[in-house]
Structure formats: structure tokens, C-alpha cells
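Q: Is it fine to ask for two folds in a single conversation?
A: Yes, each is treated on its own. Send the first.
Q: Here.
A: Result:
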Amino acid sequence: MKTFFQLALGACLTSMVGLDLNAQIVWTEPAFPTADDQVTLYYDIAEGNGALLSANPPFPGGPFVYAHTGVITSQSTSPADWQHVQNPWPGNGNLSEANNGNVLIPVEGTVHSFDFGGLTLAEYYGVGAGETIEQLAFVFRNANGSIVGKTSDEGDIFYNVSDGSFEVALTSPSGSSVLETLGNTVTLQAQATQPCDLTLHVNGELVASGMGTSLSHDLVLDNTGDYNVTTTGTVDESSSTDEAVVVVLPGTPPVTTPPAGMVDGINHLDDGTVVLQWTAPYKDFVFAVGDFNDWTLSTASMMHDVGNGETFWIELTDLVPGQDYRYQYHIMPDDIRVADAYAEVILDQWNDPWIPESTYPNMPVYPTNHTAGPVSVFTPGEAPFEWTDDDFERPDQENLVIYELLVRDFSEDRSFQFILDSLDYLESLGIQALELMPVNEFNGNDSWGYNPTFYFAVDKAYGTKDDLKALVDACHARGIAVILDVVYNHADQPNPFITMYWEDWTVLPYNPWFNVSAPHSFTWFYDWNHGTSQTRDFVKRNLDHWVQNYHIDGFRWDFTQGLVQQQGVDGGYNAQRIQWLKEYGDHVWAQDPSVYMILEHWCDFNEEMELANYNGANGVNSPGFMLWTNATHGYQEASMGYSGNDIGWANFQSHSFQDRHAVAYAESHDEERLMYKNLQFGNSNGDYDASDETIALRRQQLTMAFNLLMPGPRMIWQFEELGYDYSINTCSDGVTVSPDCRVAAKPVRWDYYSQPERKHLYDVSGAFAALKRDYPAFGPDATWFNLDVGSYGKRMRFEHSAGDAVVVGNYKTTGIDMVPGFTHTGTWHDFLSGESINVTDLDAAMPFAPGELHVYTDTPLDTPVLQEIDVDLDGQLASEGDCNDQDATVYTGAVDIALDGIDQDCDGEDALTSVPEHASSWSLYPNPATDVLTLQHSRSDLLTSVHLLDATGRRMDVPAAWSVGTVTLDLSGVADGVYHLTWREAGRVFSTPVHKMNR
């Protein structure tokens, strides 16, 4: 059989889809136009999506219809790659240009015509001799583009252009398959490009023949089943054939029982057998069409009814193991096609061509010749992913340090693989959980991901499903949990549950999954109806999918405020919404009681408290809900140096939560960046200016301390640890700042990691994250803590049998005197500097310079290795001359580090009473290096790994030779530039810059 792409040459339908199988959207005179012909095109506004019908009353009169048109040529890379587009889309005051020479003329009823200005197609589109026109491409619109006519599944409309060779086509029925009703009469119509002997056969029997360019026959459909229609044209030595099938539907689909245990979607019975099942209430018939049946509608592709009138199934046999099978469901009586909502791979004809081969190798080819819209894929006998994380245990949720990350903006190549290659960077930062913004299929390739379409499929713009699994597996190997951001408040087209119940750009009222309109004020896209069992079952199954198949450790639920069905409730207390969330939580925890559940829940205080204090029902031993806690305003004001700086909202006790269930943050994907606020609006006093980049970066150490070390789970936004200073509203040009660019791609600045001030902030952030994880006083087992964080001078005090801690800092732009709040007298140790002080008076005030920070413990700890910086701003890195002039005080965030890392008060005496048992010394030479770099280490027995990282944090593949006391790296294959050598010593990670250059 000819493919539909070929037979559409004269079929007048879109070549991309045969969904309006009994109706023509566009057709031409002549029927087989060539590039050199003068052509008239006809468009029926009542067909396809019919959007322009309501805007155009019967002619004459009514608004005009305009063509937005281009061509698919030999130079096009995909159906989305229109060439020689003739008019811009209306906008920005260009209506005159957009509507010049492209208006259609009313013909009769709903039919309009367009004559291409009386020019040939090649002349009209400006296509030269070296380029071949293959298809005409259209969407039609009203004058301002607010109403658009497309195919029934919102695709572009295409019409094939002939190359002038002899061919015949069936113009009626107008598609490769036609669904009809018993007793109807169908006119069979064949056309040829030149006079020839024409025949028409039905199921192998000749029904008409003749000489000429056309032939017709009226076929009476007096039996159910398939009528296979064939036309053949013969002239001289040439012949051409076209085929179609007319399927006469029975009154109802056959009712049969599927194998036990089948669920909607793909069911693999063995390596060569699959059962597809699909639920479509209020639909008459469902067909499964795909590579397994040449995309043909027939009685064989009709799915059977399981017996409830709404669930359909079909068994596919003799499949080839390891082969990708592309498919869709064809829904009647609507004549629409949808992809499988439960498929793990979805093909997109418009967006897939822009995904690099390096991101998604060997992507299945979109079946352009057969269909349009999203296409699902299954692979029988697919090799399972080999997991290695059996021993992984999720970190305690009440002490998590979470790193929120958008794959698109974390690297230039926007891939899971880059994140995996950067895990050294993230592990050294001390994070315990990686929170990925939505990674399931969303509309387009460039998005935050909060416009989800297919919930079981990984968005191919970021990589393959195995790439995501490999990332999760590698995170688990490092003790890092992975949390997915999920969106169950709303979905976007072309979600199949929307498409099946869609008319005039509106969700139909009998949709079992979606509301016609959102019952709450804050709405985006199309609103899930959690009041139906279909929606709640879908959500539960989707949660299970990610935990069981991808080993995901938890979920951050986007905008759970919207899970409500009553009008006018919005953020007020709503018992129904609470019950649904508890139902979802209980479902997940019943199967895996350690899964994290984080809610973005901007609702009534009592509602948040009830959810945070809920720990599961029916004996489920669950960790309970955590609540996303936006403390950004207080941190911003504090960081800029202003008085509205109370950060107490970040404390779970401020919400009356029984447990540490407030996931607080100073930055998130949805809030302005602190460094941008500092640089634009920072306060100043004399020479101390919070809008100065260096000072602003050092003030971020305060925020990192008072965020990460506050009790409970904490979150940082990607590159907050490097002082990322582009506004959230920065446009993709990296310069313009506009609210319209909020979700636009942001500049990727991995070079920040090589800048000493920013690398120092990264090191300090990592040290605080590790301290929170390892020092019990900062954890959930602390016996007592007290927070005083409502004014410029802030302090947090902690007690634990293993050791107490005090965090104290000055956010003011002037110096202050403050009582640090030590919990007892005696020796205290400054964590960042290693310096010790003797406290004799608990009420004694200490002077604090602007931006000064101390983290004191009463137990000596290893001093973190920090990037050297220019402490006194003299243009030089830290040296002996940079010592503080007062014993026991380290100014500007405790970054005044003496060369030996111990003598911090410059009095010639070591400040530590003892040196850690495993203390070591090291040297690196030569640096700059040419071909060889040597790390000499006094305790090489403590070394467990040595790696060279590039400016992006990606591990370089360099040979390394180990011997007693030294590790020698071969840099001959490394390009010139600045790198970082990292090594792990007794569970701690160290890093230092390396300059590679050829002499």
C-alpha cells in the first residue's frame, strides 16, 4: 500500500494526519499541482479544528480569512522547518505587512479560495531552480491571529506538490482509511495526472474501468468489515496504483476479556507480545494504529471492549524484541488520534528535530508519512536498566540540604549526562538531595517544565530515560537522594485526556479527568479534577511509576493549593483538598514509608499546620508531609542590609509544626536572586557598600550560614553557592531584564567557579552543609535550640550531648556590639578559621564588623579548606600581612586565613589546643603545569581519590600514577586553561586551582 504521505498528493487532506477521514480540509485545482503551475487552493473552514467557523458567519459578510503559508522543500529538515514563509505573524503593529496579499476569497458556504496572486507556486514562494517544493504548508487565521484554523489535532495543514510524473490517486475516500456506517453509500473517485486506462477494484473485484483522467463508482456498504479499494492507472509502459480501506463499523465494538492484571497503557506479556489498553469514557470505538499494522484502520486494529463500555484493549503478537514500535489511539466518533498517556517515550514532530544527537542518540524517527501529533513508543524485550543502589538509604528528611536544579540552565548542553558528570561538584557542596524541576514531557524543549503533557515519559530534550536512571543511580552511590518536581494541578495540550474531550478551545463538561475551568483563582493551562477517581488513580499510578521504575526518593508537589473543586475557596481552609493530599501520601507511604513528600501549599495557616503534622493513617509509619517555606523576603532584606530582615519564618516553629517539616529557602526557581538584589539595591555606610560585588559575595556567607544551619530541611537554588547575580527576569540575551523573560533560559556561568571570591563562597557553603550533616547539634536530635534572627545581629544557639554550637553574625552595614549567646563558659572553636577563644562571661558583648560571621562549636572540628581570597581588598590573596589586628576576632565572614591555616590571630601562637589526629600537609608542583602535575601528600594512606575538574566541574579523564607520598597526573592531553584538582582524604574533599599551559 502507498503511504498516506504519497496518496495525499491528490487527497486534499493534510499529509501529516488523516484524522478528518471523511472530510477534505484543503484541495486544489489542478488536483496534482507542480511548482510551475498556477494553482487555486480551496479551504473549508468547517473542517479540521473548525476554529474559524465561529468567527465567520455564512458569507458574504463576516471577518476575512488569511493564509499563513510557506513550503516544505528539499532543504527542510522536518515538517516544522517551513521555508519561504510569505507573511509575518501579526503582532507589534505589523498588521499591514502580515495581511498583505494573503486574504482568502469566500466561494460558497464555508469554502474559501486562494489563488497565490495568479503566480506559479515557484514564483509566489520565490523558490529557485536548485530547490524542490515538496509540500505547501498552511495555517489559516483571522486578521490579528487570535483565531487559528488547523487540523483537528491542532497540527499544521500540508498539501503535496507533484514532481510532474505520471500518477493516480484516490481522491475519495480521502485518506488511507475511512470509517463508515452500515448502509451508507460511498463514492469512490480516482484521478490521474494524464489520460490513462483507469480501474477500480473492491476486495479484488473489478467494479469500474474506463479511459481518461478520472473514474468514479458508488459503493453500497451492505456489510460490516473492511472494503479494500484499489485504483490502477496505465499509460504506455507506465502504471501507478493507490489504495485505501473503507471500514464499516459494527453497532458496538466486540466485547472480550483481556488477560488478568492488565492496566491502561502498555502491558508486556513476553518479549514478543504486548497488550495495549485504553480507557475512553463516552467514546464509541478505539483503534490502535502503528508500526505493528502499517498505521491502518481496519477491523483487525479495532480494540475490544472489556465489558464496561469505556475500556478497550488489543493484543499485539509476533513483535520483534528490541524494536521500537510507534503507535497512537484513534478515537471515534471524533476521528482524532492521541498518544498513550502511560508511554515512557513520546515523539514530537515539531520539537524533536531540535534535540541534539548527543543528548538523545538513536531517537526513533517520527512517522511523518502516517500521522500527526504526539506519537507513543514501546519496545518489547527491552533490556532492563542495571541498578547498583540496593544499599542506598535516604537521608533523614528533617536534616536535608536540598539543591534545586533546572536541567536546562545548569549547562549549555542541557542534559542529564552533564549533571552526572558534575556530581563531584555537587557532592563537594555537601548536598544530600538533588531536586529536579519537572523532567517529564512538557510542551516544547525550552521550558521550566510546569506545562506538562505526558507524565510517564522523560522529556527527550534532557536525554533518554536511561540517562535519568543513570543519574539517579550515580547520586545514590554518593549518598544523594533525588527529588522530582511534579505538577498535578494542571496540564497542557496535547495531553490526551484533554484532547479526547476538547471542542472550540474548551474542555468538554463530561471530561473524566479535567475541569472545564479551574474552580480557583490561580490557574494555568488546564485544571485537573481531583474530585474524580480517574484523576486520583492516574496520580497514584504516576507516583508509583517514578518511585518503582526510576528509584526516585521524593516529590516536590507544585501548587497544591489548586487541588480543590469548590468555587471561591482558593487559599482558605478546605477539608476536601487536605483529604486528597492525605490520600496521595498514604498511598505512597503504604508502599515505601521513607519517600519524601514536599508540598508547595500557599494556603490557610491551619491547613498547612494540619498537613505538616500529619504522619500517615492506618498504622503507616511515614515521615509526613514537608511544606515548601518561602523565607526569601527576610533573607533579601538582610542580605541588602535593611531593617525588614526577620528570617524567623524559615523556622518550622514559626508555623506551629510539630516536626522539622519546613523546607525553607532564601532562593528558589521562583524568587529573585539575592546577589542581583544586593548589586542593584544594597545598602551602604561609608566605605562599606553592600552593592559592591566583593562585599555582596561575602555577605552571602551570612545567608548560607543562617539558612543551612537553621533547624530543619533547607534548600538552595542552583548556583546560589557561587553568588549567581543575573535577575530571574533576565532574557535569553543575558542582558535585558523584563518580566516577560521570567522563564527564559539564563546564562550558564561555570566560569564563576574559577573566580576566587565565588569559589570561596562555594567552599564555605559546602562546609556549612557538611557541618549540618555531621555535627549532631544542628540535627533533629539536638536537645535544645534557640533562634534570635529578627534584627541585624542574628544568632542561633544549639545544645547536644556531643557538643554545642553558636552561629552569630552581623547583617548591618555598620559595626555593632552583640552578645554571641554562648551556652557555657570555656573554650569555643571558630569553625571557619580554626581559632579558639576562652569564654569567661556569657553576657559579655563582642564587637562585630559589618558582615562579620562566626560559627562556634565547643568541640574542635577539622577546619575546612577554603579558597584563598583578598581579605583586605589590596588586590592580593591572603598573606601574613592580612592578619586581623585583634586576637580572637575574624572579620568579614571569617575569611582572614593565615598561611598555615592554624595561627589565625597572628600572635605567633597556634590557636588550636590540639591538631586533629589525621592532619596532613600537601604540596602541588609545578603549578602552572605543562605535561605533568604532582600532588605530594604527607599522609597518602588517607587519600581515596584524586580528580582533575574543568571550569564546569566536569571530571577530566587523565591518567594518574600512585606511589607512596605522591600522585602524578599526565596532563599532556589536557587543553590549556584553569582547572581544579580535588582529592578525598579521610572522608573530606579538598580542592585547589591548577593552571595548565604550554611553554
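Q: Second one now.
A: Result:
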Amino acid sequence: MIIPTHFKKLTLPLLLSVALAGCSGGSDFGSGTSGGSKQEEVTYADVASLEVFASSGVLLSKGDNAVTISVVAKDKNNNVISKIPVTFAVDNSGTIIAASGNDTAATKTAILSSGVNTHKRTLTVTVSAGKKTQIVTVQVDDTKIIDKEDNSDIKSLDVSVTANKLYSLGSNEVTVSVIAKNENNSVVPDAQITFSVDNDALILPDAGNATAAIKTAKLSSGLGHPEARTLTVTVKSGAFVKILKVDIINGKDPVVEKESKVVALEISASSRQLFSAGIKPVIISAIAKDQNNNTLSDAIITFKVNNNATITPDAGNASAVVKTASITPGLNHPENRKLDIEVTAGSLVKNLQVDIVGTTVVLEGADSIAINNPTEYTIKLQDSEKKSLAFHSVEVTSSAGSEIIPVNSYTTNAVGEMSFMVNAAADGEDTITVISLGAAAQKKVSVSGNDFSLNSASKEVKIGTPETISMKWTKDGVSQANKIIQLSATRGVLNPLINIETNTDGEATFTIESQTAGGTVITATTENGLTATLEREFIATTPHYINTQASPSVIAPHGVSNLIAKVRDINDNPVKNMHIVFNLEDRVNGTLSNSLAVTDSLGRANITYTASDVSSAKNGVNIKTYVQEDTTINDQINLTVGGDALRIVLGHNEKIAADDIFYKKTYGVIVTDSAGNPVKDQEIAFTITPTDYYKGFMVPLLDKNPNVTVVDGVIITDNNSGHWVRKLEAACKSEDLDNDGNLDEGEDDNNNGKLEPSHDATVTTSGKTDEEGKLTIQIIYPQSSALWSRQLLTSTVVVEGTEFVEHAEFDLSILASAVKDLDVAPPNQFSPYGITADCSNPE
């Protein structure tokens, strides 16, 4: 029989039976007695599901047309039931007539028409078999709908099957797949495809075929027809017909037969502990045996694991006696936890547990604190290989109810660390507990009646000027005299340098001075571990120059440009708290968000310029800036508003060329106008900046099937048995956050005194397009830098004051010939930025 691919399929749990009495247009066929057979012994209770298909979702009310409703009843094992009575009913004055041959057909059908009512409406068709009911809806339309029934745009059909043989017993199926293509060899997703098969077999199209690029249908041998035979499957679309053959083999699928022989299953694990870094997986082994305890190498064994872990069966399991699978913690799942592993062979299931271990949380801080004196603690989160775990949540609690600051939002930073403050309100004992990723750490803290504190007159300290810090220590109201206090600071020089001694009032003073601007944390520690901290900021106060930048400098009408003025002193320290005046001069009615801004700790003052709907001349917007405290320190920038639209396309191939110790890579640029026409003689400017850098080293990777020889007990592989690959230890963001080339405060993440990565690559600075709007440029970089940084290529075109920008991002690649010989080290053997798995470590 033939079922069109655009049938709507619905298979759902059925909730109620539908009586046909009183249903308009109702029709039934068969009965509980007619056509029955005791040999089949089919009852209503055997029906577990109904699959209902409509040949179309739309029924035209005018003209001679109808929709075919097809039904397949299945039992709980998904086998088709042919000898079961099925009834059809329709509402809203529709008409439905069951086919005459439905009594014994595997697929029951009925013809649906709109009846004498030609108005638009929805018809609900109810199909029932026993206690199972299913519905499908069809829209009645009173307008003429032209469908692509002729499939005139189809020029070819690609047809394939998942297997060319089918076993008659069991639930074995073959999937038939069809792709319709037009004259341009493009897929036609709305093509109408029909499937048919001879020799009493059954073919059912997939419900989603209507819009699917690949149309599929399930082929089975048909109920009650186990005999061996050859099936002819016909696939048709318009004038195109494809025919293929599938052989029916009488019997069960040998795979199923193999599974039925399994009577025993033995499993084991190489370890019951899996380390959270995932470097060494746990191997699960399984053996299937028959009733005589013989191993079954052809048994199918499956592996399963929970809790976000990953399990990978070995590629050689198909013919192996011992089937194995590797378990790893899963991508970005380093948490300590229990894994349940399930191994199945046939109907047998065995389970075992493996613990993921090794993730640790370390809590660092003082063992003794004073009441009402917030004290800092730091945690470090690491996996089993001591690799930092970034951006994971942490739970912090105090057994004594001490205040934890901040009160929420505990998450490790990019280097797997997090800091918080503990402020105790009462003396006694406290236990601070931190929990993350299934790991926990505790620290017992002694809270004393000590009042131990640091203070100074100014929160902001002028650079080059000593600031006096006072300290006072009392315990239960008694001054702690003649006590030695250790001193330290993250920035600045202390005087005395190492320690001080309290006087009879439990007080002491010292000074701190710095020649550079930035924050500092001053720490005082007693001999018994009591600590007090004080945060201060050193600031530069004497401006020397101002530098103003606009991003972007060319904007479209109604566009916005961000204006940043940076103020520094004679030693290039950022100057804080300077009042910067912004003054606008233009003829296009643009606006500034503010006329005055104050510099922050980095010496920056920010406002925005917003353009009107009028274009300006080139550099027609002038913005002057000056320091209000010293108007002789000033700067100015120019902006442009407007221009015609251009498009820039950047492209490249995968080829690079070696040139002495360098590599050369070619990029192509095409510039077109808004209509797609090439723009010739257009000047294009190029820049290249690093966005990321990588740490690691190159390692040999052997091929799966290397040529191997054994000489005097030593295994030797040939020179072509593998190649070099990058072993990535850490991926780090560029430290130069504002891409200004200056080592600014807070940018030196690994504290090595320089910005990383270096500018490894150079690019042609500018050029002009040819008559076809094309231009080629070269990027040059050292071979030793290949694979160790990511670059951003920027092309910029300015036309009548309007700036057009296009970007391309890529890793510096390496020549294939440089990594194919394991006897020769590649030119980029070690990353120039280190090999440790930590961006904060320059090693």
C-alpha cells in the first residue's frame, strides 16, 4: 500500500474510548466476532497504542477531493495488530467512510470529505480500537489551494537504506531515506514523496516528512508473513521513480539471538576512585558468558553512567571477549561525587559505584581574631592535579554566627580564589566552614576580647608623602604593653620596616610611603596570630599631561562615541580626582552627555558624544578637554559624522608559507558599495592585535596504526607513525585590556613586569583596492610563536568621514610539514608564555 510522506502522525497515551452513537458521518468496520480467529487471540486489551496519519492537514471544500486517514494499531511490544476492529468518527458535518478491506489489513484506512457544508471549519477525526482512542484534526478551506503535486522542480532522487536485509521475526526494521534535489543539486524540502512496497510488507513514512530535507520511512516484513522473500520498495516523486530491493530472512536478528545466549555478566573497575582532573580514566571491564560459562565475544554490552560523567566504550569492543569503557569526570565537572555505572548485556544488568575524588578547597587566614574587627580569609579551589578551578560557587558559614562579608555572591575568580571577611561580635570559639564542588574545609578561630586595630587620617594618601598609621591593642579593656607586632604591606615602604613594639598604653605608630599610585593593604600581626588590616590608596595629585581618545572616531548619524580622557603625572602615574572639562564645537547639533567628569583611580574620565541626524564634514566635530585645576594641561580630538555605506569582506585560505624563521599568511579583502559593486582605489588600513595567549608545549601523537618493529626487546616506530600536536595547559586573555601598549595598574596578571602576549604578528599597514575591489595583504610572525596566541585582524575604510570596520579572529597557525616528523622538534616546541596551567604564574 502507498502512504504519502506528508501524513500528520500522532501517537499519544490514550485517555478515553469514544462511542460512535450520534457522531455525524460515523462509520465502522469489523466487529468483535467477524473476521476473528482463535489462532491470533487478539483482544481489545492487546492494543497499547494507535498511530494515526492524515494524508493532508487541509481539505478543500470545493471540488472532488478527500483526505485519507490511516491507522496502525500496536501491542505493548510495538508489534502491528491487524485483526482488531477499528472505528472512525468525525464532527462538524464531515463525512468519513472506512475502506472495505480493513478487517485484516495492517493499516486501516478511511476517506474523509467535507460533506455538504462548504464553510471553513476544523474537523476532528476520532479513531478508536478497544479502550484506545486517538484524534487528528483537518482544516476545511473553501478557497482553491494550489499544491506542488507535480513536483516539477525535482530533477533527482537520492535513495538509501540502513540495511539490505530484514529479519521477519522480532521488531527488526529498515529505514528508507530519500533526498529530493532540483537542477542546481539543492535539496527540495517540500517535495511530495510516496513510498510503496510489495509482497505483504509494511512501510510507514515518518510523521515529520512534510518539511524535512531527508524523508524517511520504516520498512518491516508485515504481520503474519515470516517467509523469506525479496521486497521491491518503490520511491516516487512526480515523474521520478527509484526502486530498491530488500531481502526478508526468515528468523530473528542474530544480534538478538546473541543477546539471548547471555546468562551471566561479570564486571569490574580498574579503580573505585576517579581523580577529578580526569587525566587518568577509570576502566570498566565486562565479560558476557553463556549457560556453559563460555565467554561470548560477539555479545553486545552497553555501558551507562550518571552525574554528568562521560563513559566511552573502547573502539575494539565488537570482537573482544573483555569489553571495556573509559570513565572521565565530564567536561567542566570536577566536583567530588559518586557515580553509578550500569552495564547491560541482553536482559542482564550489573551495577557498581566509582567515587570522583581529589578536588580540594583550602581555607587560609588568621587563627585568632578580635571582636568587631573584620578579618580577611581566602579560599583556593583546586582539582586533583592542583589546577585552579575558576568561577565555581562557594558556600561559607560560621558556627558562631559571625558576620560574613559580603553576605552573598561567593564565587571563585579566574585563578580559583575567593576572599571574604569575618566580623565576630562575641568572644569565644568559632568554626568557619567553606564548601564547594563536594569538597569542604574548616578553620577553628579563636575570637578574643581583643580590640586590635589600625587607623590613619587619610584613606587617600599622596604619593611621595609619608602617612602615619596608628595601632592600638587592648584585651578585655586592658592595654597590651611591650608587645612585638609584625608589619607588612602590599604596596609602599614601611618605617619601621619589619616590626614595632607597643607602649604602656598598648599603642604604636609607624609610617608608609609610596612613589607609585595604587591600592595597598597594610597588615599587623601579633605573636599569637591575631591580625588587623587597613586598606589605603596612594594617589598622584600633580597632573602633567592629558590624553583624550574617542571610540569610534567616525560614527553614523544618531551614533554614539565614547570619550575617554586620561590624566597622568610626570612619572606616568594615573592622577585621581582631577576635574576634566569637555567642550564641544560642531555644526551638526551633536550633544555631550556631560561637560565635566572626575578621574578615577586609573586617571580616567569618561563621557559620551551623541550625533544628530545630520552628517558632518570630515573631522567636523571638535572636542576640547582640559584639567580644571590646571587649564594649561589640555588636549583635543576630532570626530566625523556621516558617509555612504560600504561593505568589507575579509577572507583567507588554509595555506601559509615559510620564510627563513618566519611564517607568512595571506588575507584577502573585498570592498563593495551598498549595491554590491566593487569599489576600486579604496584606501584600507589594517591593524593586528593579540586577544589571547596560550601556555603549553608540543607533544608527539602516535597514529592509530603506526609501523612498529621490535629490536632486542625495544619497540621502535617509523618516522611517519605520528605527528606533533599542541598540549594546551592554559588559555589566557591578553593583559593589555585597553590595547594602548602601556602597562597600566591591574593589567600585569602574572606579575612578571610586562604585558603578555607580545605583539607576535605584523600586517601590511594599508593598501588600495584594484578594479575588482580586491586587495591582498600579508601577516608575518615568527615560527616559534605558531599556535601560542590568538590575533584580531582589523580592516578600516573611511569614506567622507564615515568609518567602516571589519574584523577577523584567528590563531597563528603552523605549517603541516613542521609537525609531521617526530624525530625533528617543531619550531614552536614550548610556548613563549610558559607551560604551567595557571595564567597568574609566568612560568
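Q: Anything structural to flag on that second result?
A: Two points. Residues 545-641 form a domain with the Immunoglobulin-like fold (CATH 2.60.40.10). Residues 1-42, 144-150, 708-720 have pLDDT under 50 and may be disordered.
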